[in-house]
Design the sequence.
């Protein structure tokens, strides 16, 4: 029998039982839609994590005091004082795989300009900081090594600070502000970076020479952090090892002892976060896959009913010359038509849900073409797999037995 | 003498229902030659339909042999049987067996759908012609539920003709028709028979049997009579003799 005829028969059978077929399809529709939406959410969050981390400088390596297993979302190494300026100098001198390096000291405080008052954080760094963090300047200029040496009271501020401390829209460059009552001359404004994945406002910062911040504001003689960038992303893991070696020998740590510092590259961060979000995606997709399976069982069920109901029809088709293979194809095509239509509606629903999630829940999403292709293929296979057995059963009937079936 | 198209020998068909066995056919033998018009008669439950189903390759005998056109049916595969049903046999069921919610035309087209040698246009053309032959040219788009019992029976007859069969097996094909229409149908069958189609016709009505060349009478699964009809009536003549009524 020709395919076109088979399609016509299947179409007719489906149209004659619209409601029933639609209800059967619902399982497949929901299954496919959720697979697509879940993968879109998973992909979206992975991409946004990667983008944020890369925007922080993908070659970046951070060195913190203490064994840090608290994750990078928290501030810097707290009260542990094992990292000092000599460590920085030594690494700068010995590490061959680093292109930039800066000591970092940081603390919180009030930024004041006249009557405008804003709580923010100050980072004491050297000029290489901008390259390491991949931050640009909106206006003004970065302080110089000489200004670091002389512990000048100059600062650069982020957009959030600008908005809150200079609400009148005047140009901050050249103005004086005070941080914890220490006067600073604003010499530059940082480019806007927005929030990072962890919800931190990256524009709520004041940057000043580390010498100034260390002595005048924090009054400490250790460092909170050392930041560096590897020559390239590929060199990052080796650079981490290099730094670790240097610090271990400098800190005289014995073979059996643990490090009193932590070195991390952005790559590690990315993979840590990607793997968590990947695991989540796998879980979500597994749940969605189960609903697809249930949808498939629904199809099998309805095909059984269909075969039972139409036993007489099967008998007649055989009596006038229909072969077993014709009957098999007829029911198989019906099952596939149901599952593919369901799959198509599922794809549409899934894309709709993704758009909704993106626009109304503000979650990052990214629809991967492969998720559509895969779920669609799974649908077709589901149709064949779950339609096969009932169709097979129909095709094995005896014409006269089928005709006599009541 | 022309060759035998049907040859059965000691054919038995038993149905087991739980512990009981129904002997529908108790070992019957006969031949039907090409071009014969045979009526099978007998009281209800005598095994006529059972016999016809076996002759139509829809059912298999419990024992005995059935040769169709020189080939033992027992040796044929399911697919070969399907092809024989499709291309050689026109079967008219006692209970019509039309597809519900399907137009008369599509019902008649059905056998040709399973014949890949027939194109879509050809199929339609032949179905229309068959429906016109049974006088339903104006009812082609009606579904079975929109047709009377007699009309449904005529759709079933048209369906049996559409594949130009070598033999027609009819199970009470005129059972639901008035005298005039059944004579019309009988004259159609006589016409087809003249063209060489072998016809085996199950009926209850003795006057229908007079249109055939031979009658086999069954009783309780046995043949009790098998006789040639020397004075075959012409259905067309009988039709002309009927009083002209509301037509
Ligand atoms: N599938 C079956 N299962 C059990 N018994 C059956 C089956 N088919 C037929 N029989 C029995 O076989 C016998 C012959 O039935 P069959 O249908 O051949 O009669 P028939 O001569 O066609 O009668 P009618 O004139 O009423 O159509 C009956 O006693 C019937 O009950
Ligand atoms: Mg009968």
Sequence:
């Amino acid at each position: 029998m020709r395919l076109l005829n088979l399609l016509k028969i299947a179409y007719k059978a489906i149209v004659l039982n619209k409601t029933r077929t639609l209800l059967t399809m619902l399982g497949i529709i929901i299954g496919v839609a959720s697979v697509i939406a879940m993968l879109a959410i998973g992909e979206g969050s992975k991409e946004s994590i990667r983008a944020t981390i890369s925007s922080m400088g993908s070659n970046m390596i951070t060195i913190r005091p203490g064994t840090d297993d608290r994750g990078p979302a928290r501030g810097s190494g707290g009260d542990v004082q094992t990292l000092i300026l000599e460590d920085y100098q030594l690494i700068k001198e010995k590490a061959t795989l680093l292109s930039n390096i800066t000591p970092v000291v940081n603390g919180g405080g009030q930024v004041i300009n006249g009557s405008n008052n804003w709580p923010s954080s100050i980072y004491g760094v050297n000029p290489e900081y901008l390259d390491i963090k991949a931050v640009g300047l909106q206006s003004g200029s970065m302080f110089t090594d000489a200004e670091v040496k002389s512990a000048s009271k100059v600062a650069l501020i982020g957009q959030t600070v600008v908005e809150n401390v200079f609400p009148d829209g005047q140009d901050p460059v050249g103005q004086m502000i005070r941080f914890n009552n220490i006067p600073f001359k604003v010499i530059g404004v940082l480019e806007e970076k927005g929030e990072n994945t962890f919800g931190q406002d990256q524009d709520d910062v004041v940057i000043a020479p580390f010498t100034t911040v260390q002595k005048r504001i924090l009054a400490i003689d250790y460092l909170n952090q050392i930041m560096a960038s590897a020559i390239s992303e590929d060199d990052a893991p080796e650079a981490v090892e290099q730094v670790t070696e240097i610090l271990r020998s400098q800190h005289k740590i014995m073979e059996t002892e643990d490090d009193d510092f932590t070195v991390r590259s952005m790559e590690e961060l990315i993979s840590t976060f990607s793997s968590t979000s990947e695991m989540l995606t796998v879980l979500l997709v597994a749940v969605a896959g189960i609903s697809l399976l249930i949808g498939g069982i629904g199809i099998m069920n309805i095909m059984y009913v269909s075969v039972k109901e139409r036993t007489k029809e099967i008998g007649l088709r055989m009596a006038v010359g229909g072969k077993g293979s014709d009957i098999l194809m007829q029911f198989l095509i019906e099952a596939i038509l149901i599952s593919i239509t369901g799959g198509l509606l599922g794809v549409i629903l899934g894309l709709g849900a993704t758009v909704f999630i993106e626009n109304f829940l503000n979650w990052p999403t990214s629809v991967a073409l492969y998720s559509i292709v895969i779920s669609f293929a799974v649908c077709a296979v589901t149709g064949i797999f779950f339609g096969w057995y009932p169709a097979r059963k129909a095709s094995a009937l005896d014409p006269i037995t089928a005709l006599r079936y009541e | 003498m022309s060759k035998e198209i049907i040859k059965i020998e000691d054919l038995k068909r038993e149905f087991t229902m739980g512990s009981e066995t129904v002997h529908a056919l108790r070992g019957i033998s006969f031949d039907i030659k090409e071009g014969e018009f045979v009526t099978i008669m007998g009281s209800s439950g005598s095994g006529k339909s059972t016999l016809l189903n076996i002759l139509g390759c829809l059912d298999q005998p419990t024992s005995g042999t059935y040769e169709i056109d020189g080939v033992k049916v027992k040796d044929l595969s399911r697919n070969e049987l399907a092809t024989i049903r499709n291309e050689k046999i026109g079967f008219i069921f006692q209970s019509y067996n039309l597809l519900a919610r399907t137009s008369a035309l599509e019902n008649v087209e059905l056998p040709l759908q399973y014949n890949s040698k027939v194109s879509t246009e050809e199929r339609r053309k032949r179905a229309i012609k068959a429906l016109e032959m049974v006088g339903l040219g104006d009812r082609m788009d009606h579904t079975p539920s929109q047709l009377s019992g007699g009309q449904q029976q005529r759709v079933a007859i048209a369906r049996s003709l559409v594949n130009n069969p070598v033999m027609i097996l009819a199970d009470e094909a005129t059972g639901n028709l008035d005298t005039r229409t059944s004579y019309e149908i009988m004259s159609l069958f006589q016409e087809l028979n003249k063209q060489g189609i072998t016809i085996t016709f199950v009926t209850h009505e003795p006057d229908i049997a007079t249109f055939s060349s031979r009658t086999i009478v069954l009783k309780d699964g046995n043949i009790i009579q098998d006789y040639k009809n020397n004075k075959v009536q012409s259905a067309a003549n009988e039709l002309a003799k009927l009083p002209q009524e509301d037509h």
In short: The mean pLDDT of chain A is 85. The first helix of chain A runs from residue 3 to 16.
